[in-house]
């Protein structure tokens, strides 16, 4: 079963964490000739979620994304739950990191002919619009 694979996946994740200078593009290993399904293999990579230099296959992410917290009682049952605060993250050249979750992450976009530099700028402009403060909005 997958128990024989688990130590190797754990070793890989530890290696990746210790070598942030490398980027690892994971393939759906074990889901071909070995005969395992994505539902069986993907959970082995649960600890890889959030490791910035490990890119998991979309199929694994679909399986893993179904393991979400459903209600506040589930939160209380997870004492080691870690939070990711978006403020203060900084982009790294040529690399997508958790910094892209920040409202201040630089990303040019246009809405109704107005160009914004980040989501925070757009959000503040929309607050001004709701308050009928066009001078501040522009």
How would you describe this protein?
The mean pLDDT is 85. This protein is mainly α and 138 residues long. It has 2 domains: 2-69, no CATH class; 98-137, no CATH class. It has 6 helices and 4 strands; from the N terminus they run αβαβααββαα. β1, α2 and β2 (54-55) form a beta-alpha-beta unit. It has a two-stranded parallel ribbon with strand order 1-2. The protein starts with 5 loop residues before the first helix and ends with a helix.
Strand order of the largest sheet: 1-2
Give the tally of β-strands. Answer: 4
Average pLDDT, rounded to a whole number, is 85
Helical stretch tally: 6
Class by helix and strand content?
Answer: mainly alpha
**What is the general shape?**
elongated
Percent of sequence in beta strands:
5-15%
How do the SSEs run, as a string of H and E? Answer: HEHEHHEEHH
Share of helix among residues? 25-40%
InterPro entries: NADAR, YbiA-like_sf
Ordered list of secondary-structure elements with their pairings:
Layout: H1 6-18, E1 24-25, H2 38-41, E2 54-55, H3 58-65, H4 72-76, E3 109-111, E4 114-116, H5 119-130, H6 134-137
Parallel strand pairs: 1-2
Antiparallel strand pairs: 3-4
Q: Descriptors for this entry?
A:
single chain, 138 residues, mainly alpha, two-stranded parallel ribbon, two-stranded antiparallel ribbon, 6 helices, elongated
